[in-house]
Write the structure tokens for this entry.
Amino acid sequence: MSSTEIEEGNGSVEHAKSDRAAKRNLFSRIALFIQQVIAELKKVVTPTRKELINYTLVVIAFVVIMMALVWALDQVFGFVTVFIFGTPLG
């Protein structure tokens, strides 16, 4: 197959899908959406206790690192501001 045949084929498939979606009424589209949501939820895997603890520790470590970075930048910008504009009124 040439690349133009493949491109034309994909375009017709997309066109057919959009035609079918346009023909459905509101309630059938809502029902389809709910079916797709349920199908996706069936794919969800609950993590084991070990994985959950590991993920939790990673998130806590990341948050602590980001807090330290924001605190450090706040201190630096505060110092620069005081250096440029003088001592703050106390």
In short: The chain has a mean pLDDT of 85.
